[in-house]
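so my prof wants the structure for this chain in the tokens format not the other one, which i didnt know existed until like an hour ago. anyway here's the sequence
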Amino acid sequence: MRRMRNVKIVATLGPASSTYEMIRALHEAGADVFRLNMSHGTHEEIAERHAIIRQVEEDLGTTIGILADLQGPKLRVGAFANGEEELEEGQSFRLDLDSAKGDAKRVTLPHPEIFQALEPGASLLVNDGKIRLKVEACGKDFADCTVVVGGTISNRKGVNVPDVVLPLAALSEKDRTDLEFVADLGVEWLALSFVQRAADVEEARRLAKGRAAILSKIEKPAAVKAFDEILYASDGIMVARGDLGVELPVQNVPPIQKRLIRKCRAAAKPVIVATQMLESMIESPMPTRAEVSDVATAIYEGSDAIMLSAESAAGDYPIEAVTTMNNVACEVESDPTYTEIIEASRLADKRSVADGIVAAAREIAESAKVKAICCYTQSGTTALLVARERPRVPILALSSSKSTARRLALTWGTKCVTIGPLDRFKSAVVDAAKAARELEYATTEDLIVVTAGVPFNTTGTTNILRVAPCDERLIYATDPE
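here's what i got, hopefully its the right format
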């Protein structure tokens, strides 16, 4: 199944997309990676969806990545005696550890760690920022606040604390249980919610024990400030604009999105842009023009993937949402301006042999009319470096590791093929030629570029490049040994 675009599409599964027929239809419509949201659904339901994805993959002979999104610590107020209360601007309101039901003057906030970190002047945001409180005085078990923006506050609404780094682990007990479950189940990516520091990522990596790659969701101001360290510790990034837009002024989000995408590309690590991309398609078969422009902007900026959340998980038009995203991507990438923007943002700083090899592969492919860049990769490093170059020709990633091939399903422009183990470079060239022909990227009359790291099975050793005919008879004739 060949996609006519480079950016990848992540689709979240849920009640609207849990059957074999629907998951297969979503993949055929354009979904490259499926997201399992651990905030919703039992382990039995998650396991069932996982099994269906693998069956679709086998039936269609494709490679599908699976991303398990851990819930993270959820901060919520307690319950109210009347179910809800109306807060007026300027009034006083207290948050405390008293378990009694709340009223118009107070409610419990059962998170002592918040009170430990608060200082006078800090902001508290309730119900996705619809209510804003300013802390006037606080102690180890209370915070007296002034209502800055009023509204209706009701049972168990979420609380955001944008001004301080909370002494909270990114992984709750539920997250630890979920992580172990999905890692054993066999997912390629683990997404961490509410990351604040690199140590959060390192903890998840210790627990994952190499069974899945770690993707950090950037949705807190603290994560933006510590982004370089978080990026270094992570295998990938999600720009999760929902909570980020709650905790920061909304006008700050677009430049942050652009900056983070560029840093991810420079580091050769995949980046997803997520949240509210086609929100209106939850209930409408057509998106708004603004939503289409938002999706297009993420593609023009060079993101590896764009994501659907409720649109595909619980919406009325999941297939239409994926199809729309696919169509927008194809249209944007056919625009000459897209190529100009992507190439203008290519980094010139090359520090290693691997950097030079992949840059040369891209330049040769574009100047010599080569049909594809084929990279043999065991860990995925070579393919990630090639994708960072954003070449004009397709990237074929060949790996003897099925998990690596599935993991690369999230990477820009990369078509993943699983092959048998190799012990010499010529075998990689032959396999690359066969794959390029079978996938109709090239004919026996064409040339391909092949890159790899020798010795094989050693991470980070991209050190060899060959321009080869796409006819193995010619390969053997020119290199009989």
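also thought this was worth mentioning. The radius of gyration is 24 Å.
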